[in-house]
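tool_call: predict_structure(chain=1)
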Amino acid sequence: MSVRRMITAILVPLALILGSGTAAVATTANTTAERTYNTWVWNVAGWTVNDSSTTNGLITVITDSIINRDADFAALNEVCWGQYQAVIQRLRVLGWAEDDSNFARFETSHSTACDGGAFGNAIFSKAPLGDELRYTLSSDGSSEDRTLLCAPLLTMQKMAFCTTHITPSNAIIDGKNINEQQLDEVHGLMETFDGLGMTVILAGDLNNEANAARLNKWYSSSVNTRYNSANYGSYRELDDTDARCVGYGEITFGNDDEGPCGLGRKIDFIFVRENRLAGSYDGDSLSISTACGDSPCSDHRIVIGRATVDVNL
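tool_result:
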């Protein structure tokens, strides 16, 4: 589906969620509030590294980290359905969610990839969630669907959290690189959210390095540095002020001698639109735990970030 068609399609569900007609919700409310959110995201390689296990230590590592980092929002990429359910159960036991019956959403990318079980992306919120928004991105020709999964807060409908996992494929489909096309589709949807007066935090694995030309339309020109230049977009990534590699951020995947600063590659992100930021922000990545059967729990690092944002009420 083209970005134009996806943007058109989004107006109807968002109008319903925001409680008015499309024309009405396109006008930004005058009343705003500042809110500070801690965001947490991890590509857990639920099948490729963890063989869909719920007993090898992964669930404890996930939930303990969410709690220890005082996350308001959390996202998982490449998580198996059984692992998702186990995370829900343990977060309930730990008392993390304000409403333990309404704090998680899952979107299937492949129905049988986890030893016959579903595989996909998930989001979690300490505060109760409203109706989810689910979008399937253009196909990369494989049996896996790439998606954008979002949900607004139940009591603050113009504050939403999203996750996505862009294909690593660079296949040319219908004359365009499919990785770039999926990035553009997600970007178009994020811009539509902003046009509807929404504040959105997007977290996920974009399968591009932070300095990739394909992300120039994402990063604001105020981010331009020797390590990440030619940006012309409207977004800040919560680790883009990291003094060790300004504009790029810290390693999330691969070896620590890669990337423009020789400190590792960053392909996992937390983005917020610059016009929604209401103060300082920061981000970080965490060393990969080895508590999953005495092996690394994933081939990606956990990424965390904190930002104060303006939210339309």
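agent: Helices lie at 3-17, 22-25, 58-68, 81-94, 178-195. Proceeding to next step.
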